[in-house]
Amino acid sequence: MPRMAPGSRLAALAAEAAACTRCPLAATRTQVVFGVGDPEADLMFVGEAPGRDEDLRGEPFVGRSGQLLDRLLAEELGIGRERVYIANVVKCRPPDNRDPRPEEISACRPYLTEQVALIAPRVVVTLGNFATKLLLGTDQGITKLRGSSYPMGKTTLVPTFHPAAALRGGGVVLAQMRADFVRAKQLMGRAA
Ligand code: URA
Q1: What is the model's pLDDT at position 4?
Q2: Is there an atom of ligand 1 within 6 Å of 59 CB?
Q3: What share of the chain is helix, strand, coil (3-state, %, to 5)?
Q4: What pLDDT does residue 192 have?
Q5: Global model pTM greater than 0.85
Q6: Could you report the per-residue pLDDT of 64-121, keeping only the tens digit for each?
């Protein structure tokens, strides 16, 4: 069989995920929110889990947090979301937007691992504690980890706050997120 392009392989994986029953979230979701964007993006964002808006639309970060993400992309990098790839740690909405449980994260992890491998972005920006802890394999919190970048194979990981934290926390958190987006932009320019 000829080698499939990353976009085709991602589409095949999305089709597989659409029927996923690996964890109990399958019973309460409206639909699987697999990911969106350019399959060959240089920059990838990883959030936590779909909320209500995302569960209904089938696309990550389309609610208030997503609007802030779009704004930061436009203001700090000068690009729209179609130029990046956006996914979550967990692909199905946890009921009432509770935190994803360890067994749900473990069940869903292979999808994210495969997404990162297929897209092979130069930079992954993790949004908040869940994505950062999972991809860095650490128990340290985001407040400690952000402000630096971390090599992860051919990719560099840039941890930042979840946009919801900036919506709650205001100016200081937002300013730190802006600085992290600038760091990601600089690292993309520097990559081979
Ligand atoms: N928060 C997330 O972590 N992911 C989304 O897709 C939306 C809100």
Answers
A1: 82
A2: no
A3: 50, 15, 35
A4: 47
A5: yes
A6: 999 999 999 999 999 999 999 999 999 999 999 999 999 999 999 999 999 999 999 9
Pocket test for ligand 1, best of 33, 46, 65 (most atoms within 8 A of CB): 65
87 Rama class: left (phi>0) / alpha (psi -120 to 50) / beta: beta
CA of 81 to the centre of ligand 1 (A): 14
* Residue range 6-188 in CATH 3.90.1150.10: no
| Short-list 93, 98, 36, CA closest to 70 | 36
Please give the structure tokens belonging to residue 91: 């692909």
How far is the centre of ligand 1, averaged over its atoms, from the C-alpha of 58 (Å)? 11
Using a 6 Å cutoff on CB, does residue 60 contact ligand 1?
yes
Query: Which atom of ligand 1 is nearest the CA belonging to 162?
Result: 3
Atom of ligand 1 nearest to the CA of 89: 3
- Per-residue pLDDT, 30: 98
Q: Domain coordinates of the chain in residue numbers?
A: 6-188
